[in-house]
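To whoever picks this up:

The parser on our side crashed when reading a file containing two proteins. I've narrowed it down to the boundary between the first structure block and the second sequence. Both blocks are reproduced below exactly, byte for byte. First block:
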Amino acid sequence: MERKMTSKELAAKIGITTVNLSKLKTGKAKGVRFETLGKLCAVLDCQPGDLLEYVPDKPTK
């Protein structure tokens, strides 16, 4: 999804650090607040499903 915006600009618009934005982009974040997700969707003009992917836990033996 290309929006012609730097990570620094996006982070500033949604009120998080560039480090936290990087964690979200790379899938290394442990979670995301609904407020942050809402701000991302508002700025990027998208729906949460455009940004999130369900990945089931690995089965335990």
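<<boundary where parser fails>>
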Amino acid sequence: MSNELVARFWAETERRMWAQMMARQCRRALQKGRGFIVFVGGGR
């Protein structure tokens, strides 16, 4: 494997882990109170 492939693989893995972490935070916020999520998602 070339360094470029390894770097791309790690970037993708990091992004996926970050997305999962953000999703978990959002879910926790949803359970606490819906007002914040509604405010953030109100633009749609």
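After patching the parser it read the second block fine. The mean pLDDT is 81. The chain has one domain: 3-41.
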